[in-house]
Design brief:
Elements: H1 8-13, H2 17-48, H3 56-86, H4 91-98, H5 105-115, H6 121-133, H7 138-150, H8 153-163, H9 165-188, H10 197-201, H11 215-250, H12 253-260, H13 267-275, H14 282-294, H15 299-312, H16 314-320, H17 326-350
């Protein structure tokens, strides 16, 4: 029986078996590498170098050796996957999804998207580049950039277990409000020219509706995006994590608890300022917040500290500096910091 001829659409959409095998092997290697980083970092720090468990230098070095490859792996993997996905969407379709028909609609959609994407700010850099390069309004992009690290589903579950649905619900609602309003404010300032020039020039797998791409084409574009973007930001990632590692190992939690336990008006802004130099994600900082509350810190003050750590940490700002010019970065920090401070006061008044 005569076999039907392969149509052009079938040829384009079909993934060659060799490419399938290569992607499978790369994916397995990525997972293996990601899962051995932590024990490998601990082995190098405590067994090979002989540093003591719990020592300041040991904790800092183990943190650094774990986080640098972890973030670079996450960054590379995310850029690759996002770039593959973007080959199926033209900039016009992306703008239609997040641009919004009315004022604020795009910010709400972007903030909601940020909730379900468990990225820290440094991991959100490739998404930021993709959004901006696709023509999505800058303010909408910032709503995503703020919500993604701040409203973490692991943090929500942990807050729910530790403090109940009321606290967890307030955390989600206020985090969303911060992301939406901050994005709207930044969007109204019209600061597109304060995004670094290379961001506008990066072509992250862009394809028009008439362009016919095979799977090898898509994979090649994604790989080129990985090399281009990681090549531009890796040094900032290393510097940022190095600063975070030093603070992680050498800043005592008792000192933070003493400051945040003071029942004074200045404790909330002080907590935000203290959180900025630190480095962690929401899930990682919640045990610290719980310890601070047990030492007498007010809940709103402690949560403001947590929000500043996950949304405004100095290491992540160093990474974001690679894609934002100083004035826009300063506006971003200022707008979000004010919103977090207000949130801390609200929690302290209501609870």
């Amino acid at each position: 029986m005569e076999q039907p001829l392969m149509t052009e659409a079938t040829r384009i959409n079909r993934i060659p078996w060799k490419l399938n095998l290569t992607l499978l092997l790369v994916g397995v290697a990525w997972l293996v590498a990601y899962n051995i980083i932590e024990p490998l970092a601990a082995w190098i720090t405590y067994d090979v170098l002989g540093l003591a468990h719990g020592s300041q230098l040991g904790e800092s070095l183990a943190f650094f050796l774990y986080d640098v490859p972890k973030i670079l792996l996450l960054l590379s993997g995310m850029i690759f996957l996002i770039s593959i996905i973007r080959t199926f969407f033209s900039p016009e379709r992306t703008r239609a999804l997040l641009g919004g028909k009315r004022q604020g609609v795009g910010n709400v959609l972007a903030a909601m998207l940020g909730i379900v994407t468990p990225f820290c700010s440094c991991s959100a850099v490739p998404l930021f580049i993709g959004f901006v390069e696709s023509g999505i309004p800058l303010g909408v992009t910032f709503s995503f950039l703020i919500a993604a690290p701040m409203i973490n589903e692991v943090a929500v579950v942990m807050l729910l277990g530790l403090y109940g649905w009321r606290i967890a619900g307030m955390y989600i609602v206020l985090g969303l409000i911060i992301a939406i309003l901050s994005g709207i404010v930044i969007g109204r300032l019209k600061m597109e020219h304060h995004v670094e020039d290379f961001v506008w020039q990066v072509q992250v797998g862009e394809s028009g509706p008439q362009e016919k791409l095979t799977w090898p084409d898509r994979v090649d574009r994604a790989w080129q995006s990985v090399k281009e973007i990681v090549g531009k930001v890796w040094l900032y990632v290393v510097i940022g994590i190095a600063i975070g590692a030093l603070i992680h190992g050498f800043v005592p939690a008792d000192a933070l608890g003493n400051i945040m336990g003071q029942n004074q008006w200045w404790t909330v802004p002080a907590a935000v300022l203290l959180g900025i130099p630190l480095y962690s994600n929401a899930a990682g900082v919640i045990p610290i917040v719980s310890a601070l509350i047990s030492k007498g810190a007010a809940l709103g003050t402690a949560l403001a500290f947590m929000m500043s750590v996950v949304a405004l940490s100095l290491p992540e700002m160093i990474i974001l500096r690679r894609v934002l010019k100083p004035r826009l970065l300063a506006v971003f920090i200022g707008v979000v910091a004010v919103a977090i401070i207000i949130t801390g006061y609200v929690f302290n008044i209501v609870l």
